[in-house]
């Protein structure tokens, strides 16, 4: 019985982390879009540079929110932890792009359906990468 209760508590804790990670990711999507929009439309930077600045700003914001709220990290080596987080995020961006390329470009799925699958795949990568690597 104790093992079952422990299992239920671990499952609840895991799901709560996953939901928090998703909420942070949603906030990050708004940060990414907002920074990209401001840089491109108001500051008149190149669209690709604006996109990079949006991604970097969102990844940085998400790192701190996930460090404090989702994973409650006490690691004193914030620089190393941030680099790990950023590496996971860049790989996630690659997974997202590759998934859209395969599903839309090669298999001829609808672009937005491909994007939904890509975002889900990248989110799973990012969550487990950060759970098992960055904040382990």
Could you please describe the fold and organization of this structure?
The chain is mostly helical and 136 residues long. 87% of the residues lie in helices and 0% in strands. Helix 3 (78-106) packs antiparallel against helix 4. The radius of gyration is 17 Å and the shape is globular. It starts with a helix and ends with a helix. The mean pLDDT is 95.
Q: Helix share of residues?
A: over 70%
- Percent strand equals under 5%
Global structural class: mainly alpha
Cα-atom radius of gyration: 17 Å
Main pleated sheet: none
Mean pLDDT: 95
Give the H and E element order. Answer: HHHH
Q: Which outline best applies? A: globular
What is the terminal-to-terminal distance?
28 Å
Poorly predicted parts: none
DSSP summary, beta strand count: 0
Q: What's the total helix number?
A: 4
Give a concise summary.
The protein has helices spanning 2-42, 47-70, 78-106, 111-134.
Q: How are the SSEs ordered, and which strands pair?
A:
Layout: H1 2-42, H2 47-70, H3 78-106, H4 111-134
Helix pairs in contact: 1-2, 2-3, 3-4
Q: What features would you highlight for this structure?
A:
about 140 residues, mainly alpha, single chain
